[in-house]
Amino acid sequence: MTSGAVIAGEQHAGVGGERTGEPASPAPITLAKALNLGLRSAMAADPKVVVMGEDVGTLGGVFRVTDGLQKEFGEARVIDTPLAESAIVGTAIGLAMRGYRPVCEIQFDGFVYPAFDQIVSQLAKLHYRSAGRIRLPVTIRIPFGGGIGAVEHHSESPEAYFCHTAGLKVVACSNPVDAHQMIQQAIRSDDPVIFLEPKRRYWEKAVVDPRPLGELAADATTGLHSSAVVRAGTDATLVGYGPTVRTCLDAAEVSAADEGRSLEVVDLRSLSPLDLEPVLASVRRTGRLVVVHEAPSNVSVSAEVAARVTEQAFYSLEAPVLRVTGFDTPYPPARLEDHYLPDVDRILDAVDRSFGY
Asked: Which pLDDT score is estimated for 20?
């Protein structure tokens, strides 16, 4: 049985050890485990789904996201590949052309660049080049972002490269519930999907309904390319995705406690295409917007959000759209990453500056 499931009719001890006769509450699971359950459900539902990457089989992946899948589905469907990202993606393209739905794991964000040519020159363009005759339902999982004290090439935020590439869909989960659902939605998609996983949030927990996507009620799911308001507010809007959604929520809590400000938080979830309707609706109510991400600010997702909100909600803005991001430098050594990454103080400083206009 999966760790988040509930045995029907199971009893649990109440206060003082009494038997309550009520079903046991599902235990919270980590974001990594939620991804594992989502992958397992997708593989069980469709024999054409294959998982491939470095150490995904016997080891279960560096972050154990694929743990146990090879034992359950066999070496023909959970494939340990050579250390060759270009070959991983190139093979996945060939498999997709023959009717499979490959899920590639790129071990760390900084390792994706050897596969960049395959992704942007082939994967992103074959559907268009073939006038729609070829579909490439390939999901590329990339742990991204910093905050784990890693060495060089292990803490990148490469999302803007892929968002700029026509033909690719780019999404980022931020919590276990979304991770479980979004990985299944990505695998079902007939388009190539860059699936970004916030590595420093892998161990955060939440209660997740472990049932396959098809068994969940429609109102219990959110579309793969939909944004979501994750905290309601009235005074200013914070927008983040992936690892910075939790940082925005923490900032909103501190602001409410210390300043009495009500900050709304929107999780973009999809970076390409962008669903800005919840953002625009929020800005039209609050009049202020701060966009937060770990990637550098130059030519970034936050730049696109700021431009489009300014174009479409200019008369609702009480202040310029402000951004809290990583710096326009290579990612620093681990001992300096706390200075590089957006934190609660930097976000609240931006909120203060917004109210200063």
From this structure: 52
b/e map 16-28, b = 16+ CB within 10 Å: eeeeeeeeeeeee
Would you call 270 helix, strand, or coil by DSSP? Answer: strand
Q: Residues 78-132: pLDDT tens digits? A: 999 999 999 999 999 999 999 999 999 999 999 999 999 999 999 999 999 999 9
Burial 276-293 (b: 16+ CB within 10 A, else e): bebbbbbbeebbbbbbbb
Instruction: State whether residue 99 is helix, strand or coil.
Output: coil
Rama region for 167: left / alpha / beta (φ>0; ψ in -120 to 50; rest): left
pTM of the model: 0.92
Give the β-pairing of 101-105 and 205-206.
unpaired
Kindly report the number of other CB atoms within 10 A of residue 67's CB atom. Answer: 15
Which of 38, 48, 97 shows the shortest CA–CA distance to 77? 48
CA atoms of 142 and 119, how far apart (whole Å): 13
**Active site amino acids:** 154
3-state secondary structure (DSSP) of residue 49:
strand
Which DSSP string corresponds to 181-198?
Answer: HHHHHHHH-SS-EEEEEE
Q: Kindly report, residue by residue over 43-76, the tens digit of the pLDDT.
A: 999 999 999 999 999 999 999 999 999 999 999 9
